[in-house]
Every structure is written in structure tokens, then in C-alpha cells.
Structure to design on (322 residues):
């Protein structure tokens, strides 16, 4: 039951992504064509405000619900992992017009074909996990 | 009520996404969606194939519920919080897409040229859907995160790997949008 709050936060996140049209294939196309400020504004303002929160976490002015300091997990380092992995992700993001969050929102919109995209994404994660020891990072 | 049913501007959505990050962190978790793709593999028995997936998926229950919530949020907004108005897209985008064979850009959230249910049953349509998903899944796990984990969490905490990953996201996205989409469609 203690996890129900994450369901509620998910509902809010799903509504935000829907209402701001982030889940629209067209908004992603427009972004990569630099024909609209919309997506840059959303990601940019989310990053800037999160930066303030991150500073407040770091200085201990915002603590978690247990009263402990909030520590942000460090991302795995590696030039190949990040640039090559990121580029592969970007190819898919632009073609599907959706990254993982919006894919699930579109399930809620009743778009049946997105289930095939999600299946592909799970297969992709499976392929990466299975090959991870052999891939350069 | 008008405010709810109208599309939300970037300066409403961006700060609200930051609040989602704040709430998740307050409750002791990080903001990220693509880890769930691995959790689905683990639940499906991928641990038999590779040790990579030998994890305790129950520790990810919170994140699975977050995903269920995202689906419910999509359902609620599409059923109760939206108008039938078409999207306001850049007219240039609309005419470019029309030239590529995408009719009626912005009439719905996703183009029927990719997402109509009939496409699932055509070879090309199916290949595009599953291939796009595969790239997202493979790439996000290789890079160690997607838009939420790298672009929002990683950039805002000033992590160099995330800057590199987001640079990659744009390299890939620009190649697809400018060069490959005109060839594929």
C-alpha cells in the first residue's frame, strides 16, 4: 500500500504529458526540425527548475520523507555507452515520436499500435542486457 | 475548466515535470522510466538467458506502479480532459509532412500513417513500429537512461554522462528526422 503514492504521481505525470502534447509524434518531429519552441521550452524549464531542486537536495534544505538527505544516483560513465547508446535512442525517439514515458501514455489513449512499439522496446532492452558484456562502453 | 481542456503551455508543463521529480525524490526514488523495460524482461524470465536480468524485480514495484499510473493518466486525459480541436502546429511542419505523405498533420496526436491498427498487419508498418521501439529500448539501456533519467535528472544534477547522452539523443533524432524519415516514407 505504501507504493500507491507512486501510482498517483504516475497519473499526474501521464496527464501532464498528454495535456502538453509531449506524447504527440508531431511535437517530436517539430522539435527535431527546430520548427517550434514548445518541446525545448518544456525540457528546458523542467531542467532549470529541477536544477534548483537538486541544489536544495544537495544543501540538505529539502530532505526526503524520512528526514534523510536526498542523494542523486550517479550516472554510469563511458563515452561510447552514452554517445552511441544515446544516438540509437534518438533514432528511435524520432521515428516512434515517443520516448518510454509517452509510450505508456499512448496506451491510455487507446492507440493499439503503440503496444508493438513497447514490445520492440522490451526486446531492445532484452537485446542490450544479453549483449552488455560484449559491447564496448 | 477551460484551462484544463486547453493544451497546456510549455511554461506550465515544464515546471510541473520538475515537481514530479521533486515528489519522487521526496518519497525516496529517482525519476526514470526506461528501467521498467528491463524489469519487464526480468519478470518474463530473461534471467534464464542472461545474468544481467537476475534481479529482484519486486524492488521495482514502486516503478511499475508509476508506469501503471502513467497509463491511467493517459486514459483520464484522453477521455475527460481534451477537446476535439486539432493541434496548433507550425504550418511549415504541416506542409512538409503533407509532402512526405502524412495527411492531416495535427488532427490527432499520432499520425495514422504510422499508428493505424492496420499497420500492425502490414510488413512495413509492423517493421517500423517494432524497429522504432527496439531502438528506444536498446539505446536507452545502453546509454543508461532516457529523457527522464538523462535529460531531466542527469542534466539538472550536472552530470557529464547525461550531457553526452542527450547530445547522442539529438544526433540520432536529427539523423532520423532530416535524412531517414524522408527515405522511409
Amino acid at each position: 500500500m505504501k507504493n500507491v503514492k507512486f501510482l498517483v504521481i504516475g497519473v499526474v505525470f501521464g496527464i501532464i504529458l498528454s495535456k502538453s502534447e509531449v506524447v504527440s509524434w508531431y511535437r517530436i518531429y517539430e522539435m527535431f526540425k527546430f520548427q517550434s519552441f514548445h518541446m525545448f521550452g518544456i525540457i528546458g524549464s523542467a531542467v532549470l527548475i529541477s536544477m534548483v531542486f537538486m541544489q536544495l537536495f544537495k544543501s540538505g534544505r529539502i530532505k526526503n520523507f524520512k528526514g534523510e538527505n536526498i542523494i542523486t544516483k550517479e550516472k554510469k560513465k563511458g563515452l561510447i555507452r552514452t554517445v552511441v547508446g544515446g544516438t540509437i535512442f534518438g533514432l528511435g525517439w524520432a521515428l516512434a515520436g515517443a520516448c518510454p514515458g509517452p509510450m505508456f501514455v499512448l496506451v491510455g489513449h487507446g492507440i493499439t499500435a503503440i503496444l508493438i512499439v513497447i514490445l520492440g522496446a522490451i526486446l531492445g532492452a532484452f537485446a542490450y542486457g544479453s549483449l552488455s558484456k560484449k559491447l564496448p562502453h | 475548466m477551460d484551462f484544463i481542456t486547453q493544451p497546456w503551455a510549455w511554461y506550465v508543463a515544464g515546471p510541473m515535470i520538475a515537481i514530479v521529480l521533486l515528489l519522487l525524490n521526496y518519497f525516496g526514488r529517482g525519476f526514470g522510466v526506461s528501467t521498467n523495460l528491463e524489469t519487464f524482461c526480468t519478470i518474463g524470465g530473461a534471467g534464464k538467458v542472461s545474468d544481467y536480468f537476475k534481479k529482484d524485480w519486486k524492488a521495482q514495484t514502486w516503478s511499475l506502479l508509476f508506469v501503471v499510473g502513467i497509463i491511467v493518466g493517459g486514459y483520464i486525459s484522453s477521455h475527460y480532459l481534451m477537446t476535439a480541436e486539432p493541434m496548433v502546429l507550425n504550418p511549415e511542419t504541416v506542409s512538409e509532412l503533407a509532402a512526405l505523405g502524412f495527411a492531416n498533420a495535427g488532427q490527432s496526436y499520432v499520425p495514422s500513417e504510422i499508428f493505424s491498427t492496420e499497420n500492425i498487419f502490414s510488413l512495413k508498418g509492423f517493421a517500423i513500429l517494432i524497429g522504432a521501439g527496439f531502438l528506444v529500448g536498446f539505446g536507452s539501456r545502453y546509454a543508461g537512461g532516457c529523457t527522464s533519467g538523462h535529460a531531466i535528472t542527469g542534466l539538472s544534477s550536472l552530470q557529464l554522462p547525461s550531457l553526452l547522452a542527450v547530445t547522442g539523443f539529438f544526433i540520432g533524432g536529427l539523423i532520423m528526422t532530416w535524412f531517414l524519415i524522408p527515405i522511409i516514407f
Notes: The mean pLDDT of chain A is 97. The helical segments of chain A are 4-19, 25-32, 38-58, 79-96, 100-108, 114-131.
